[in-house]
Specification:
23% of the residues lie in helices and 27% in strands. With 574 residues, the chain is α+β, with helices and mostly antiparallel strands. It has a ten-stranded mixed sheet with strand order 7-6-5-4-8-1-9-11-2-12. Strands 18, 20, 23, 25, 26 and 30 form a six-stranded mixed sheet that branches.
Amino acid sequence: MKNHYLLIILLGFFSCKSPEQEDSKPNILLILTDDQGWGDLSYHGNELVETPHIDALAGQSVVFDRFYVSPVCAPTRASLLTGRYHIATGTTWVTHRMEVMREEEETIAEFLKPHGYVSGLFGKWHQGQQFPHDPIGQGFDEFFGFSEGHINNYFDTKLNHNFEEVQTSGYLPDVLTDQTMEFMSKQDQFFVILSLNTPHSPFQVPDRYFDKYKAKGLDDKDACVYGMVENIDDNVGRLMDYLEESGKIDNTIVIFMTDNGPNGIRYNGGMKGKKADLDEGGVRVPFFIKIPGYEHQLIKPWAGHIDILPTLADLLKLPVPDALEIHGKSLLPLMEDESNWRDRYFYTHHVHLKFDTIPGAIRNQEYLLTLKNKEKALFNLINDPFQKLNILEEERSLAFEMENQYRSWLEAMTVKGVEQPLIQVGHPKAPKIWLPAPDGKRYGNVAFQGDWGWANDWFIGFASPEDVVQWEIDVVENSTYEVFLQMSNESPLTLLFSANNQETKIGIDQPNTATLIPNQDRVLRGEVEEYIWPELPLGKIKFEKGKQNLKLGLLENYPDDLSIKGLILMKPTD
């Protein structure tokens, strides 16, 4: 009798399953590394670095021999998240808000949310610092990482967990991998991106990895880079072990890829170029996708970051709305029958400080045309994969046709303009808004401490009334914030702070000293150092809806020891 009742209960349970349960779809784990080149794998013939776990993953995956991304990191991330060329999303470069993707762009996380997926992003975001341009605003349910282009220290660093700052313990890639596994363990159906910060600078790695590659005769930088890569490999191994032991491996799509070419001259399969270059070595990266039910195969026709979203949608049997205006295409037909695949063009654009029509490139399976300032070069990638012979003179008509195609594409991609989205203020979801120096604008003699104004930099050089900085904001709703200034000074000074078109004089009589956080760099860094910055209260301000500028300058005295890191807006707790 008990068995009879148990059967009735079980039948009732299965008959009441939701549509989502009836149509359960595979999980997705996307592993993305930072500045790891095509050649930074033993799978690709590098005899110095050891990557057995990634190699094993490749052996179980569909491997794309020629997979293209953008020359630098933020543009690649925008394209893989949306299936669209990065320029069309608003992301054009890596700093000064040129990395910010427009909030109306639909990411993979937003696309999957109606279908029961819970999405997490662990590690580097690099598509906008403030809500709604942050991961939470772009569809991710959980974010544990950093929003900038890089973070300054990899040991025991502070990260953001959604809207809260948390202290971590340990080596950052290990911490991020731990958090990724914890997230996956809690979800029935997940999409997760593990966006590792390595082997991007600063060059920091635990001793056991560094010492191993120093013993192979490498200099400090390459020993650190390859040590970072082996650490990545160990974490890939941990992830695959977790999926196996948890029973999720047979229902999880796993992708491994990198975001651009190597951040230095080292083994890269003989290809020309490195990170920030248009050439093969700057944009061709590893791409392995392990799909339940698919055997290992090598795909020769090229594919790219714009193809990831439509491919995942096809694998999950989810239609992609025409309104998304996807530029990529599903690679599923290519995996199933290469003979019917039609060639197409892949477009590349690169910015250096200021947007221009070039540098740019256009390539297909056979040819690559690069446009660099006043230089043009055409290569036959089938006969000359290492770009040794410029055949522009012999193929003038083809080069002319390809350049026209590139310029028509660029015009179409910039139809919405290339102006950076403003920082939005007033969202109830965002109790704290950080306005860092690289998100602001400088005038007069104001400079960046690190010259370029990469992530984490700060303003210096206030010497006259014309030397001011400002942050352009869009107040979406009337809102009140307590405003704090991150600054360091030794000499007395008078600040002139402007908000809501009202100027306030603020006298600073006491020194405020930023405290250096010691690092574990293996080589001299190109980034600025990390400090703990004093936070000076500027008062409680009610911001009125609309666009306005927050402006800072000096009056009367102009000490040369002033550094301004940024502004913090905090919603009052009372």
